[in-house]
Amino acid sequence: MTTFEWIIGLLLGAVALSALARRIKVPYPTFLAIGGVLLAFVPHGPSWTLEPDLALALFVAPVLLDAAYDTSLRDLRDNWLPVSTLVFLAVGVTTAVVAVLARWLVPDMPWAAAIALGAIVAPPDAAAATAILRQVNLPYRILKILEGESLLNDASALLIYRVAVGAVAVEHLKWSEFAPSVVLALAGSLVAGYLFARLWLLLSRRVSEAPSAIILQFAGAFTVWIVADRIGLSGILTIVAYGITIARTAPARTPARLRVPAYAVWETTVFILNVLAFMVIGMQLRPIWSRLDEVVRTEYVAVAACVLAAVILARIVWLMSYVVTLRTRVAQRLLLRRNIVVPTVKGGMVVAWCGMRGIVTLAAAFALPENFPYRDLILLTAVAVVLGSLVIQGLTLRPLILALKLKQDNRVAVEAARARAITYRAALDEIEGDPSEEAEILRLEYRAMLMRAESDPHGGVPTSELPADPLRRRAIGAARRSLLKLRRSEEIGDDAFHQIEEELDHAELSAEA
Questions:
Q1: Where does residue 468 fall: left (phi above 0), alpha (psi -120 to 50 degrees), or beta otherwise?
Q2: Across residues 37-62, what is the average pLDDT?
Q3: From the CA atom positions of the chain, what is the Rg in Å?
Q4: How far apart (Å, rounded) are the C-alpha atoms in residues 307 and 105?
């Protein structure tokens, strides 16, 4: 009963912290990180344990699937150069810098353990950054670069992490021995994710009840991760391929009465998992802190502070070097490809400062085997990096953005307006030849909607509760087909697609009611 009371109290506290974060316009993970650390030192506080192997599957798989579902392949392709450099080179540079620093500060630490530490703290979590970026209406491209980085850098970092942990287990690290398994994991994970998605779509086709459909979604996410891990593939890449494949197919076959509650449940679940991750990992600090003497505590805190500084500086140096190099090469006419957008210095500064670490860093640190060399130091350092980056960068990101006065970009609103006009025109055309009085009432409604969509690119199009619901459902079906066609042709991105999809869902639910 005491555990249950603590869970209720922690969730209510997290809701209060989230409301406070929204009010003062800072990322809510910042307050969760502070709360998790403070919880570790509460007298008679809870002390929950979790199997290390369970951490990545429980905390990362559903969060990553949720992010992959909303990812736009068009935007990933349009920003392939900055995203790929952040995913591979920035992660690699950060891992190398932290590994060298850790070995210098702690000479007895094995190289494999130092590399594992670097891989753990290397991948930024864009959730905190995008929470701020969406409030200030930044250029669309910066937001998509950060979201693409967050989706894929976990895979590159955890691949290095996996090799390093395996090297500790066999007590040596030879690239020639691990290279084949790495190549297999990269290629096999993408294929497996696609096949798993096709299988899940086949099995869930006849499910028409919202509770059953949502349970199958979560069961599918965890099953894919567990199976991929058991057969030696990358759980991250498999889940990403799985989520993106489902996202390209599911909207056309999922009715609104299933999709609307599913979105609400997934959003709530991601929030709860973030709360539990910060709280449970924070609780692990108490036994670590209590068994260290004063001298060792001081040494560990010093190491954690140095690693935090190195992580922040490595990203800034890398990003600004990339921006300056690319701008110089373009100025010298060494790069003339039309699909390469020249980055701005201000944009580079924002991306460089969006290096907050989050749930993946915490889960990867906790997932280390109990007998891993310097596990206590690595876990303490990971928590310090997450907390420090969320506090230092999370609290100063918005003031930085406002000070730079970047040019606003309303691309999503423009695409949504075009999609709204086209879809409601398709709905109107579907019932144009019906002579009934109900059809005439509905045509008047849709003409009014169409006029508003064409004149107000920023406003929604609410539906009224008029009769002619069977006709409305028919018209909405035509509108959906038109919207899916726009997405397939890449005339609109996924942000605009989901915005209009939500409007059509509300209209469909109104018609069914």
A1: left
A2: 80
A3: 25
A4: 10
CB-count burial class (<10 Å; 0-12, 13-18, 19+) for 401: buried
What is the C-alpha to C-alpha distance for residues 57 and 223, in angstroms, rounded to an integer? 9
The Cβ-side half-sphere exposure at 396, using a 13 Å CA radius, reads 11
**Own/partner pairs, 340-348, CB within 8 angstroms, 24+ separation:** 340/81, 341/79, 341/141, 343/82, 345/320, 346/404, 346/406, 347/139, 347/141, 347/142, 347/323, 347/406, 348/319, 348/320, 348/322, 348/323
Tell me what pLDDT residue 467 has.
47
**CA atoms of 220 and 196, how far apart (whole Å):** 9
How many C-beta neighbours within 10 Å does residue 350 have?
24
Mean pLDDT in residue range 268-284: 85
Q: Which of 10, 19, 12, 20 is nearest to 40 (CA)?
A: 10
- Residues 207-241: b if buried by 16+ CB within 10 A, e if exposed: eeebeebbeebbebbeebbeebbeeebbbbbbbbb
Predicted confidence at residue 464, as pLDDT, reads 47
Cα separations (Å) of 256 from 250, 253, 476, 487, 509?
A: 11, 10, 11, 18, 7
> Alpha-carbon distance 256 to 210, whole Å?
10
Predicted confidence at residue 174, as pLDDT, reads 59
Give, rounded to a whole angstrom, the gap between the first and last alpha carbons of the chain: 41
Element (H, E) at 476: helix 469-488
Q: Output the CA torsion sign for 350, 323, 101, 373.
A: positive
256 vs 249: CA distance, rounded Å: 15
- Least confidently predicted of 91-105, 130-144, 271-285: 130-144
> Among residues 118, 33, 23, 91, which one has the least CA distance to residue 394?
33
Decide: 381 and 305 in contact? Cβ < 8 Å: no
Give the span between the Cα atoms of 246 and 201, in whole angstroms: 7
Assess contact for 394 and 27: CB atoms under 8 A.
yes
Mean pLDDT across the chain: 84
- Asked if the model's pLDDT at residue 344 lies above 50, the reply is yes
* Residue pair 374/113 in contact by the 8 Å Cβ criterion: yes
Stretch among 7-16, 58-67, 175-184, 488-497 having the lowest mean pLDDT: 175-184
How far is the CA of 137 from the CAs of 26, 392, 410, 412, in angstroms? Answer: 15, 22, 8, 10
Q: What b/e readout covers 54-85, taking b as 16+ CB neighbours within 10 angstroms?
A: ebbbbbbbbbbbbbbbebbebbbebbebbbbb
pLDDT of residue 120: 95
Other C-beta atoms closer than 10 Å to the C-beta of 334 total 9
